[in-house]
Design a protein that fits this description.
Blueprint lengths: L4 E5 L3 H12 L3 E5 L11 E4 L1 H9 L3 H5 L7 E6 L5 E6 L2 H7 L4 E4 H15 L10 E7 L2 E6 L4 E4 L1 E4 L6 H7 L5 E13 L11 E7 L2 E8 L4 E9 L14 H8 L4 H8 L5 E7 L7 E2 L2 E3 L14 H18 L3 H30 L7 H11 L2 H13 L8
Parallel strand pairs: 1-2, 1-10, 4-12, 10-17
Antiparallel strand pairs: 3-6, 4-5, 7-8, 8-9, 11-14, 11-15, 12-13, 13-14, 16-17
């Protein structure tokens, strides 16, 4: 067993999955979280095989089976006519091709499973009200200060406290985020409140001119997660918890298909946030301090890979720390292994926004041909297989 302690700033999905991966390899971990309590934040996440195989390896499958939704497939629908195109099977075909399932889950449910597992396996609970405000790499590891003025040391410090991380700014400099001109709406709909034909366990991507809508079931099929993205100037708040109104939401999507409107009218509370784009940056690893997850490589959500990248990071980070004799060596190797893949995901996510919002979708004569061509099976395989095949548990470290 390793008696060296790793400090992790941030008890979100990246931080807790990294902590569990380290605990599994015999490390001791201290997790510092700035919030005063850990609760449900956010809504739906899609965990594809590249993520689920890691969660399975951490012994979390039985707990997660109680809360995930196993959607049968994914489909494209036309924004005004509702016409459908099947994308791919997410059931037996996904398992046979990639060796792991595809899960759709409420972020709060995944987070609770991770937190419960950490509390059961760690010798110290998550420390709340503990915001890391400064850190230095030292000859013996990492030294850092909390907002309450207390100072701490660790073998290495991993920053997983999100895109607004103090440590991200310290390592990478001032945030150079650019407003994308995209506004995101999200909300949750009780499944029993909607018509039966809208309850199908599938992930649906509605595409339209200048906007798209994603829907899929979460919480074991009890809720439908609804996300609408629209090109719109003005609102630039990046918080996930800014409340909007049904009136505003339907001003943006009121001309869409009735199935979309039926879902949006049933959202219990719509939330809105601006999507900011950030160019991939190097420099996550600096001495005994390293960024992971959104702190390292924030992305737009158009490949559904934000959480998966965090989970992959966790597995690779733990394996690197186990394979190298110092934290700086391990962190340098981690960045080298993860840089290109995460940069590719960030860049291709941006490309998907253009694909989902193509102006041809407003032309009845061109729209069907555009979707049929853009989402033909071979293109879909090229777009997604490289994501799902990646195995962070077998990458050579």
């Amino acid at each position: 067993m390793n008696d060296k302690r790793i400090a992790i700033a941030g008890a979100g999905i990246a931080g807790l999955t990294t902590a569990l991966s380290l605990l599994q390899l015999g490390w001791k971990v201290d997790v510092y979280e700035q919030a005063s309590q850990l609760g449900e934040v956010g809504a739906g996440l899609q965990i594809s095989p590249n993520g689920t195989r890691i969660l399975q390896s951490l012994g979390l499958e039985n707990a997660l089976r109680q809360v995930v939704s196993k959607a049968q497939g994914k489909e494209i629908r036309m924004w005004n006519t509702g016409q459908r195109w099947k994308l791919f099977d997410l059931g037996d075909d996904c398992l046979s091709r990639f060796g792991a399932p595809y899960w759709m889950v409420h972020r709060g449910d995944l987070h609770k499973v991770l937190l419960d597992a950490f509390n059961a396996r760690s010798d110290a609970p998550v420390r709340l009200n503990a915001r890391v405000v400064s850190a230095q790499s030292t000859s013996g590891g990492a030294s850092f200060e909390l907002q309450d003025g207390s100072r701490h040391t660790a073998y290495g410090l991993i920053a997983s406290d999100g895109v607004h991380s103090v440590l991200r700014e310290k390592l990478l400099g001032e945030d150079k985020a650019q407003f994308t001109g995209l506004l995101a709406w999200r909300g949750l709909v009780p499944i029993q409140s909607i018509a039966s034909h809208l309850q199908a366990p599938v992930g649906t991507n509605w595409v339209g001119p200048g906007a798209h809508v994603i829907t899929y079931p979460v919480r074991g099929g009890q809720l439908m997660n609804v996300v609408g993205i629209i090109e719109k100037e003005g609102w630039q708040g990046e918080s996930w918890t800014e409340q909007g109104t049904h009136e505003e939401l339907l001003q943006d999507f009121g001309h869409w298909h009735e199935d979309v409107l039926a879902l949006m009218r049933k959202i219990e509370q719509p939330f809105k946030w601006a999507l900011l784009g950030r160019t991939p940056q190097r420099g996550w690893a600096q001495g005994s301090i390293c960024l992971v997850g959104d702190s390292a490589h924030p992305t737009l959500p158009f490949l559904a890979q934000g959480a998966n990248m965090a989970i992959e990071d966790a597995a690779v980070m733990a394996r690197c720390l186990d394979a190298y004799s110092t934290a700086p060596e391990a962190f340098e190797k981690f960045e080298a292994l993860r840089w290109q893949r995460t940069a590719d995901i960030v860049n291709r996510s941006s490309d998907n926004a253009k694909r989902f919002h193509n102006p041809q979708l407003s032309d009845a004569n061109k729209a069907v041909d555009y979707v049929s061509t853009e989402w033909e099976p071979e293109k879909v395989r090229r777009r997604y297989d490289w994501l799902f095949e990646y195995d962070a548990l077998k990458v050579t470290v």
